[in-house]
Amino acid sequence: MLTFAVLYFGVMFDAGMFDPIIKGIIKAAKGDPAKIAVGTAVIAILSHLDGSGASTFLITLSAMLPIYNALGMSKVYLAVIAGMGAGTMNLVPWGGPTMRAATALGVDVVTLFNPLVPVLAVGLVWVLAASYLIGLSERKRLGIIQELPEEILERQHIREGAADKGRGEKMIVVNLLLTVILIYALVKTLLPLHAVFILGLPLALIINYPQSKHQARIEAHARGAIYTSSIIFSAGLFTGVLRGAGMIQAMSEALVSVIPDTMGRALPVITGVFSMPLSLFFDPDSFYFGVLPVLSGAGEALGVSPLSMGRAAIMGQMTTGFPVSPLTGATWLLIGLAGIELGDLQKALIPRAFITSILMVITALILGLI
Amino acid sequence: MLALMGFLIIAILLFLVLTKRTTVHFALVVPPLVLALLSGFSLKEVSGFVGPVSPV
What we know:
The structure holds two protein chains of two kinds.
Chain A: H1 2-14, H2 19-29, H3 33-47, H4 53-71, H5 75-89, H6 96-105, H7 109-113, H8 117-142, H9 148-162, H10 172-187, H11 193-208, H12 216-220, H13 222-244, H14 247-257, H15 267-278, H16 284-301, H17 306-313, H18 329-338, H19 342-366
Chain B: H1 2-18, H2 24-38, H3 43-49
Helix pairs in contact in B: 1-2
């Protein structure tokens, strides 16, 4: 799926589909990196309303990457901001973690999530603030780029020389429509995930680059496609061994067995604080169906309600923490699209995502929700 | 034992990736493979474990 997704968005980018969006954003931000950074967070948060990490990263990175390149802003920060926004928004009740927590504990997802709205709001405010701080440091490094319009023109000039736009210019509306339909199909899983872009790519090609000489458009994106897909296959062995050999199962049993019965009231707080880093060790199914019910059982014996435990768990496990976890495909897509290394992303994103979780735990504590 | 191996595999990946000792491709494949073999699984069993990565 990822191979074809990378190729699809590559072709659409060449065809100029993103040009109006990019120009609009740059004009609105007036070349100020701080505004671009906050804008990135807003796009990531809004596009994660559907709860799907893959589509969030496809949309945010495709739209913003050219802007970051044009301004000379760091691509690592782009991925960090996208990851912070998507991770925090992954608490939405139709998102994976919240649904799993509710199912695993046998509680109503609405009862579990609704009181958390102010908590999520605090998390999002922090995401915007952190993005602004990142933007400020980039502004210090780069200044406000005044001569930007020329630079963008130049970039497009270069691109037109190297890659012709095909029929892209006349087809912007068709391209946008096709992309919206594909993302809808992706989110609603109307088709198997991989089928969406396997079908989308040839359609994108026939719309924009109908002739056989345009085969070169595929080659132009070979680098990104190979990087992403080869990592995904490697990750298939990594997660396969952890799960298939029963290691994750054993890890969850080990984790549960070291929890002393004396923790009592502190159990939800401890779960909440460690939920983000636990994304690095447990995939969502293993955590929510393997670890959480046992934690909750231990808590219940000490008078802690399953709702508190469920809420504590979604403060970080595969929510704020998912974009740094090697156990999910979305992480690999994120670094593949941004063209950065996992280590750089983790170094910058782990502390910020951790702060998000801590702030949300504190808010939930004050409100008496966990 | 298995739990320890699991934590080790993830710790090694994080170490290699964060310190940039190796490529991601190496860190994802070789440590789990070696540790799975050390845990007594055969090569055949390990290749049977390989599967798709779940999206979010």
